[in-house]
Specification:
Layout (H helix, E strand, L loop, with lengths): L9 H11 L3 H12 L24 H8 L5 H13 L3 H6 L5 E2 L4 E4 L2 E3 L21 E5 L2 E6 L8 E4 L2 H17 L17 H15 L8 H12 L7 H8 L4 H8 L4 H13 L4
Antiparallel strand pairs: 1-2, 2-6, 3-5, 4-5
Helix pairs in contact: 1-2, 2-11, 4-6, 4-8, 9-10
C-alpha cells in the first residue's frame, strides 16, 4: 500500500503529474488529494490490480443475470434498489414511504436499521413512539431491531432516483396500498415490519446460485453500484458527486475505497513515487 504524502504546493505537483499522463483526468486524483489537504490516502490494491478480498462486486452483466432469477417482487425490487441507488443495507431497510419523493424523484436517507444486539451492560432504549419505523429499539412478534440515525453526518442525504427505480417504487407502493392497511410510515421494503437480514442474505445467495454467478455480500451491492457509476465514464474529478451519493464522510473515503477502479491512475501514481526513489 502506498500512502500519498507530498508537501509541495498543489499547483506545482499537478503540473508534474500532467507530464506523466497523456490523460489529464488520470492525474487529477492526486491533485484533488493534495489540493484538499487529504493527507495519508492509502490506495487499496493488490499486486494484480484487483480489489481487496473483502470487497467483491458484480459487474453490470452479472447483476442482471442474477436479477433475472429473482421470482419474488419484494426481494427483486429491494436488490434492484440497492444496486441502482448505492445505499447501505441498513439505510434501505429503514426507508419508509414518507422518505420517497416521487415528484422530485429522490429519496431522503435519514435513518438506518440495526440488528446487532447491544453488548452486555449496554442500555437498551425502547422507542417511545409505537410506530415501527420510529427511532429506538423495537421488539415486535419476537423480532428486535433498532432504528438509528445514519452512519455519519454526510450519510443524512437526498439521493436521486433513476427512472427505473421510480417505476419500481411506484409499482411497489400501489401493491402495498392494495394488500394491507397502508401508512406513510410503513417500511418501503417489508410494510409493517422491515425485511429480515437473514432472509435477505439467504435469498440473494439462492438467486446467485441459480444464475451461476459468484456469491457476494448484500453490502457489496453498494460497491457494485459504485463500480457501475465509474464504468459509465465517471470523471475522476467528479468523484465528489459519487461521494455525496454514497454518503461518505468526504472524498478521501471514496478515493480510499474505490481507487482500485482507476488502474491507469494507479500506474501513474506508482511511476511518480518511483521517480524520486533511490536504492
Amino acid at each position: 500500500m502506498f500512502p500519498i504524502r507530498d508537501r509541495r504546493p498543489a499547483n506545482a505537483f499537478y503540473q508534474e503529474l500532467k507530464t506523466l499522463s497523456e490523460n489529464v483526468q488520470e492525474a487529477t486524483i492526486l491533485f484533488v488529494a493534495v489540493a484538499q489537504d487529504l493527507e495519508g490516502i492509502t490506495l487499496r490494491m493488490t499486486n494484480d490490480g484487483e480489489p481487496p478480498k473483502e470487497m467483491q462486486i458484480w459487474s453490470e452483466q452479472e447483476f442482471w443475470k442474477v436479477h433475472a432469477q429473482m421470482d419474488e417482487k419484494l426481494y427483486r425490487y429491494f436488490f434492484l434498489f440497492m444496486y441502482l441507488m448505492g445505499t447501505r443495507k441498513g439505510e434501505a431497510l429503514a426507508l419508509t414511504w414518507q422518505d420517497v419523493d416521487f415528484e422530485r424523484q429522490e429519496v431522503r436517507i435519514n435513518k438506518s436499521l440495526n440488528r446487532k444486539k447491544p453488548e452486555q451492560g449496554m442500555e437498551i432504549i425502547l422507542a417511545s413512539d409505537p410506530t415501527p419505523s420510529s427511532m429506538g429499539w423495537h421488539i415486535l412478534n419476537g423480532r428486535s431491531y433498532e432504528i438509528t440515525t445514519p452512519k455519519n453526518i454526510t450519510s443524512n442525504r437526498k439521493v436521486w432516483m433513476t427512472e427505473l427505480v421510480v417505476k419500481t417504487l411506484k409499482d411497489l407502493r400501489a401493491k402495498s396500498e392494495r394488500d394491507y392497511d397502508f401508512a406513510e410510515t410503513d417500511f418501503v421494503f417489508g410494510g409493517k415490519l422491515p425485511l429480515s437480514d437473514q432472509t435477505v442474505r439467504r435469498r440473494m445467495d439462492q438467486y446467485a446460485d441459480k444464475a451461476g454467478i459468484k456469491r457476494i455480500r448484500v453490502h457489496d451491492l453498494r460497491h457494485s453500484h459504485a463500480s457501475l457509476v465509474i464504468s459509465k465514464g465517471l470523471k475522476i474529478e467528479d468523484l465528489i458527486l459519487l461521494s455525496k451519493r454514497l454518503g461518505h464522510r468526504d472524498v478521501k473515503e471514496t478515493l480510499n475505497t474505490y481507487s482500485h477502479l482507476f488502474p491507469n491512475a494507479q500506474r501513474k501514481i506508482l511511476e511518480s513515487i518511483d521517480e524520486g526513489a533511490e536504492m
